[in-house]
Amino acid sequence: MMDAVAPTSEAKPDLTAIAADAAGEQAVGRPTVYVYEAPVRICHWVNAVSILVLMVTGYLIGTPLPTVAGEASDNFVMGYIRFAHFAAGQVLAVFFLARILWAFVGNHHSRQIFYIPVHRKQFWKEVLHEIRWYAFLEREPKMYVGHNPLAQTAMFTGFTLFVAFMIVTGFALYSEGTGIDSWQHRLFGWVFAIWPNSQDVHTWHHLGMWALVMFVLVHIYAAIREDIMSRQSIISSMVSGERQFRD
Amino acid sequence: MGAATETFYSVIRRQGITRRSFHKFCSLTATSLGLGPLAASRIANALETKPRVPVIWMHGLECTCCSESFIRSAHPLVKDAVLSMISLDYDDTIMAAAGHQAEAILEETRAKYKGQYVLAVEGNPPLNEGGMFCIDGGKPFVEKLKVMAEDAMAIIAWGACASWGCVQAAKPNPTQATPIDKVITNKPIIKVPGCPPIAEVMTGVVTYITTFGKLPELDRQGRPKMFYSQRIHDKCYRRPHFDAGQFVEEWDDEAARKGYCLYKMGCKGPTTYNACSTVRWNGGVSFPIQSGHGCIGCSEDGFWDKGSFYDRLTNIKQFGIEKNADQIGMAAAGAVGAAVAAHAAVTAVKRLASKREDTKQDH
User: Fold this and answer.
1) Could you say which residues from 18 to 37 on chain A have a Cβ atom under 8 Å away from some Cβ of chain B?
2) Do B118 and B209 form a contact (C-beta atoms < 8 A)?
3) What is the pLDDT of residues B155-177, one digit of tens each?
4) Which residues of B fall within a CB distance of 8 Å from A200?
5) Does B110 lie at the interface with A, CB-CB under 8 angstroms?
6) What pLDDT does B45 receive?
7) Cβ pair B303:A197 closer than 8 A
8) Would an 8 Å CB–CB cutoff place A187 in contact with chain B?
9) pLDDT exceeds 70 at position A139
């Protein structure tokens, strides 16, 4: 059934004609539309790799590998793990910042993950529709060019807020090593005003990792499922930037 | 002890140093500091006229371990700190006077050195039941503390009790023991946490205040930067084993005998700000990690309420269970994973069912 869909035309999509966005107007007509601009896609995959590295190395910092044999001067296992964690953390932070900047200059889809239009009644109606769709109560999915309203809500809370939290607490913890005079401490030392014992910051940072694990699980599942069930490209869109509608 | 204002000069003379030697000292100090020819007489003048800083040392809810630590200071010797550098006017644990005589000194110092004396507080006031869990001189300690703090120049909060609350403030804190900075909010407070703080850190803080007449530079949490700006972990002599990935896995294993890092045994060095790994204890003889036991984080806020001293990950006590972040995270992630799998299964079944329906309709 899926495979039967003919390749789509290469015609330049007319955005006004499609007019499907978070506001919920249904996408009809044109089969492909350019959604994710190159910087958004680059940020997505760089962040994905960094987060994977951060999760693995972060877990190993909390629960280190078994003791290595030999002289201390011949080994640097924990050192390399921590280096990878800190390096990936800085990469994530830089690309997260770049992503925020792009939200100002990019198309309106690039702004979706940074806010929830809480004041719009229509938005919540569509969220409800999406929840019903996921609860198998709706037979037909709605088509969206960007994120669907439920996905937008999930992206904002599950990704943007959590990653921001991880970056802030991460740099605060990093400042413990770089010292009280470092720019990291000047910028992020206020975290220790909230949790005076940095042990608590470690714990929250650790819980944040597990929250992101949950996000990643749901994110990947939802992407694959929507790719199949909603008759629109999701995964390949993050590579090509084009969203294809198969009906 | 009394409250007579003894100057540094009179202390120096009392210790048997001649006036000639005193002037030699002043000239030498001025020369070595590269000061002008007039400086020597200025230094002499300051030492002759400047009264020693009066200190009132009070005890709230505490165990006196701070005092025990303090009296073992080696650099400077505690006798020099107490008898020469400061004028310890009141310390109910070690003073000779008792009863009304002792309490009278408090009034006298408060009136005579208004805004000039340092109030050192060991322990903290319990606030529950109007403060009746700590009665001192017939009155709740919290009242005495507030009265004496009113006219103090600055307050030193000795130890984890005065700084954070310590064991008497551990959950559920029945007496509502409260750290000093939550009770006194209008005075500069210097926190010297630790259970107890290192003797040399205590006398070091006192020396700084008496020498420069001001508080040392404090960090964001009110601790003197010179002793509390680095973690035990940063200067630990076992740190190379940490970076190498060499850990004690069990008490008394080969790694423990070799002196590997105690990280996996729950050492709190990586989250504890103190000078133990540099200054060490008992005149620099040793410190907990050096004797094979992890740091318990005694100078950190709420260190009694973070689960076992021997666990790497902190226990989280919500929902009435004690689990660490990994256990909670894995359970939650597992639940989400199971939900995702179940949802996928239902999706697949539904899809098959609707496909069949579609094909039926098509026919």
Assistant:
1) none
2) yes
3) 999 999 999 999 999 989 999 99
4) 306, 314
5) no
6) 84
7) yes
8) no
9) yes
What is the Cα–Cα distance from A242 to B3, expressed in whole angstroms? 85
Give the closest-approach CA distance of B161 to chain A in angstroms.
15
Residue A32 CB neighbours (<10 A): 20
Instruction: State the pTM of this model.
Output: 0.84
Contact B244 A221 (CB under 8 A): no
A107 has pLDDT over 90: no
Tokens of B57: 């040392």
With a cut of 90, say whether residue A77 has pLDDT above it: yes
The mean pLDDT value for A115-134 works out to 88
Shortest distance, CA B87 to any CA of chain A (angstroms):
33
Tokens of B101: 């005589």
Chain B residue numbers touching A77 (CB-CB < 8 A): 244-245
Q: Within a 13 Å sphere around the CA of B360, how many CA atoms are in the beta-carbon half?
A: 6
CB A65 within 8 A of CB B245: yes
Range 267-296 of B in CB contact (< 8 A) with A: 268, 270-271
DSSP string, A69-137: PS-GGG--HHHHHHHHHHHHHHHHHHHHHHHHHHHHHS-GGGGGGG---TT-HHHHHHHHHHHHHHTT-
Please identify every stretch of chain B with a pLDDT value under 70, giving residue numbers as ranges. 1-5, 317-321, 358, 360-363
B187 three-class SS: coil
Check if A183 contacts B (Cβ < 8 Å): no
Q: Minimal Cα–Cα distance from A214 to chain B, Å?
A: 5
Q: Which amino acid, residue B158?
A: W
Give the pLDDT of residue A201: 94
Percent of chain A surpassing pLDDT 90: 53
